[in-house]
């Protein structure tokens, strides 16, 4: 005995062109069979109507299995009991085989499928089998045949559902893998941006100090020694930053990464630049309010990028740093004068720092501007809204 199982949804529930074609052929053959039967008792048009109803599972059984099987069973019962009460008709039995398969294959619930199978069995037992000379063997054969095609349809439904579930699982895995790839790509970009922000500044200062110390080593050993000390300090800071980033990359998911620097470390950043020979002046007198961490981090990175660019492209030029807050926005400006005439830019940047900084500013709804000034200097300015954009 088959027990009730969970609801199963068929894979395909549409109407196919070949189903309609088979239904038309079935109606033609069934109508001709009843018309040629010696037991024809009802009007031929009504037999044709019953033939059309018996063909419904072929045409619409995939979409409406319950209604299609019920209509076919009712039509076959009317034809075999009242219109053409004959045991020689093959089409009503074929219609019940198709209906039983439809019930097993397309009925969404097992209980409904069993009820529809019962309708098919009832039609055969009340119609052709009841008037047969040997109803026991005939009934056994018909019952086994209907059960067999019903089970065949049910097995196809199970296989279709398993295939659909496998496709859904593969699609979910693909979507999950896509999201992971996107997250990894975003994380790589963030790491590359942070790497540039935290290390490039220190390395740039180290290169500048090394160049200067090489030029003055013979003339002013004390100044060269001071420059080497600054290089050492910047190198140690760069190593600390690298270790912190590697710690973030290696730590377990439940660990807490070190927070990025904010305006609280701004004075230390400027002092480091000054010790490396950058003539930097910091003005925070117009910074009148405490800022959210995302704004503070971006402001710090803006100053860091401005100092790095000034040291790289205009060594020896004065650098002005201004932070100003209004009720609506934060403005960070880093400007430098033209490089002294006897100094040339020792290094050339790749533009990665500005690109990464622009991403930071844009993500917060702000605007970043960078470009040369009329006096030959350079200005970097970030305008950030104090409330989410």
TrEMBL record:
The keyword Kinase applies. One of its GO terms (cellular component) is membrane. It is an enzyme of class 2 (transferase). Residues 299-386 form the Histidine kinase/HSP90-like ATPase domain. Residues 367-389 are annotated as: Disordered. One of its GO terms (molecular function) is phosphorelay sensor kinase activity. It catalyses: ATP + protein L-histidine = ADP + protein N-phospho-L-histidine. Keywords: ATP-binding, Kinase, Nucleotide-binding, Phosphoprotein, Transferase, Two-component regulatory system. It comes from the Bacteria. Residues 18-159 form the DUF7134 domain. Residues 187-252 form the Signal transduction histidine kinase subgroup 3 dimerisation and phosphoacceptor domain. This is histidine kinase. It comes from Krasilnikovia cinnamomea.
